[in-house]
Design a protein that fits this description.
The complex is a heterodimer of chains A (104) and B (170). Chain A has a single domain, classed as 2-Layer Sandwich (Beta Polymerase, domain 2). Helices cover 22% and strands 27% of the residues of chain A. Chain A is built from 2 helices and 5 strands, in the order H-E-E-E-E-H-E. In chain A, strand 1 (23-28) and strand 2 form a beta hairpin. The radius of gyration of chain A is 13 Å and the shape is globular. In chain B, strands 1-2 form a two-stranded antiparallel ribbon. Chain B starts with a helix and ends with a helix. With 170 residues, chain B is mainly alpha-helical. The relative contact order of chain B is 0.15. Chain B has one domain. Classes of the chains: A alpha+beta (104), B mainly alpha (170). Chain A binds chain B through residues 19-20, 22-23, 41, 43, 45-50, 53, 55-58, 69, 71, and chain B through 24-25, 27, 83-85, 93, 96, 144-147, 149-150, 152-154, 156-157.
Chain lengths: 104, 170
Amino acid sequence: MSYNINELIQELSKEHFDIETGLEKIAIYSNDKDDELRLIEVNNVAFPTGQVEPFVFASTKSYPIQIVIADVTPAEWEKICQGMISLPDNWPQKPSKVILRNQV
Amino acid sequence: MTNNLAQAYLQQASSDYKSYVLLKKHKEPYSQWLHFLQMTMEKTGKAYMASYGSNIFQLRKSHLAFGRFLLILRRNRIIINELNLSILQLKQHIESLSPIVDKIERLAPALSNGINAEYPWILTNEQYAVPCRYSFDDILCDLERPLGRNMLKLLKRALYNERWHKAFNI
């Protein structure tokens, strides 16, 4: 199935910011060529574990691509940016995009 | 074999969790992997209750074990320190999980008059709902949200984190 990953990101971001009031930002760790959408959601209701723990969601009609989401707290996000919390093995070290609430 | 009842429950819960992950990954019907998720939570809860002295006969009769585990978890100072949370923060996190934990625990047929993950149930006019064809929208919607993922994070810690096991003498 063909899809435009940037449109999917836009749609998913809007949906998640609409539903989750504690969501502050979404960091995208995929690019146009990836076959899965990896993201970190910085959310003040995330359960803090000091790790990035991704959960996989299979493709659906609405999102025809596997989505991998890890929730972190704002404090954990700062540590990720400082390199104090590492990312999963196959993830790039920097996000390709960070989307703020007021950008959707 | 093990002579430690809590470890025995944890080992079986861990095996259930692997089945949950596999069934979900292979897009089996929702009822199938929800059933294994419910069983993982039940046995994990029972492992921690065993560490508090419940015996195998009491545990076999008990239900809603994961919810009860969460209540004892929030009083454990080693866990509170490890998570770097205040007692109040951990209490708030755990209370926020109560609705989704309760919904999943009540998928066990023994706790449900209707919707469950194992057996058909009566709708109306002699029509029966079949778990493997049911959508479980309410639970799936919760599981896909941050609170659902928070619950899974906590479950994984309870299953696999050795410091948590030590904190409860498992």
